Amino acid sequence: MPDSPTPEEREKKDKEQKAKEAAEQAALPYKWTQTIKDVDITTPIAGNLKGRDLDVKFTKNKLKVAVKGQTPIIDGDLPHPIHTEESTWTLETLSDGTKEISIHLDKINKMEWWPHVVTSAPAIDTSKITPEDSKLSDLDGETRQMVEKMMYDQRQKEMGKPTSDEEKKAEMLRKFQEQHPEMDFSKAKIG
């Protein structure tokens, strides 16, 4: 059985992996960033091109970005589906006179990180992503309630106090006892 790597060896391997990943991503003809909710891609093009010179298409599962008559800049399957009606692209002129295509893809599953823009591109290690601080106000009502309950329960546990579910059970028992004073609850165990 091989020895498990030391923290130094692990750190060296992580650094090498990160450098390899950075080099692969830098070699792509576009730059991309993501949040847990969406993916943004920019790709530079010649300053003399106009929107009509471009061929930009996306479906729920595919993305194609090309200058008409040239090899596509991006052409492939998306790793996960997108909301096409919420996704957009624009042609922007930068301050130096060059242009770039800016693409915004709205993820359907707002709970997963993408390893790449298209499945044919080199992947990044999504387990190393540290999510940006998301605000509770960004979440929909049901998700927000669930997260707030989890946060409350976590704080209660840390202080050695009952969780919201345990509090509910105790409250139900208390009400039942009030409604049935004739019953003896002195030896009752709550599980």
UniProtKB/TrEMBL annotation:
Residues 7-23 have a biased composition (Basic and acidic residues). CDD domains: p23_NUDC_like (cd06467). It is found in: Cytoplasm. Residues 1-26, 152-191 are annotated as: Disordered. Required for nuclear movement. May interact between microtubules and nuclei and/or may be involved in the generation of force used to move nuclei during interphase. Gene3D superfamilies: 2.60.40.790. GO terms for cellular component: cytoplasm. GO terms for molecular function: unfolded protein binding. PANTHER family: NUCLEAR MIGRATION PROTEIN NUDC, NUCLEAR MOVEMENT PROTEIN NUDC. Pfam families: CS. This is Nuclear movement protein nudC. Keywords: Cytoplasm. Residues 25-118 form the CS domain. The keyword RNA-binding does not apply. GO terms for biological process: protein folding. InterPro entries: CS_dom (IPR007052), HSP20-like_chaperone (IPR008978), NudC_fam (IPR037898).
